[in-house]
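One chain is below:
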Amino acid sequence: MNKLNIYDDVYKPEQQAFPATENDVIDFRLLVKSLWKDKWLIAVTTLLLSVAAVIFALYQPNIYRSDALLAPAEAEQGSGGLAALAGQFGGLASMAGINLGNTGSSDKSKLAIEVLTSRFFIQNFIEKHDILADVMAAKSWDYNSKELNYDLDDYDVTSNTWTRDVSEPFTAKPSLQEAYKEFVAKMIVSTSKDTGMTSLSIEHVSPIVAQKWVTWLIADINADMKNRDVNEAERSIAFLKKQIEQTNVADIRSILYKLVEEQAKTIMFAEVRNEYVFKTIDPAQVTQEKAKPKRGLIVLLGVFSGIFLGLFISIIRYFFKK
């Protein structure tokens, strides 16, 4: 006689509430067969994306890069005298707006880089050299005729008028704020921590334009930093001369004359040196080889994208059929 086991209906941990069925297990052999059945789907997807990648790569204009290697210019010879006066006459100099602290070339070059990439400098640069069309509407470059081709939907070069169709607050003629964003996207500035050298690069559809812009940028930033220091020194001299006229104490007058002398040295060295902040080690050149686009890489990405997309669609079809 069989005895009733009162524990027969007790839940056992090893028993699953929802036991796995045969359909829940992925059969890789069936999956491979399904992928093989969809081989034409995968092939067509790969072909379509590959053709699209080829067309996209061919329609991309060549982008040329021109770069220059810059070194920080040596500090002014007068900076040694300023440093010697800093400990004794720092308070008086600060009243005149004279900086007797570190005037090394590294600090000037760091400041120059910040000025170089600022909105104010770039916008003035675009206006000064009248390059708004080259920044905003340049489409391609004809290497044989050495001429730029512009986007006719944006700019009519024959009448020198802007034909952009944009909505408010934008206007047909691009603003300097728009031009600044486009210009900065074409400019690359990097400084090596090991050598302190600065690399300045411009990417453009025209290699000639890229080389011109790099050369102009170097000249303009040197001139801008020079003018800043000269103007500051002239204002300091004017203040010091007023103080000299107002005092009869010989020692104070002697100190003030020394400060005037140091500011005069700053002006003198600035006027005789064109490469005020950056010295050009390797000047920009008109390059013959394009930097972008990498058309082979674009096509390769298109091929792999087509393969993966085809596989993905086929796998989704397989699971929906199950």
Notes: Confidence is low (pLDDT under 50) at residues 76-88.
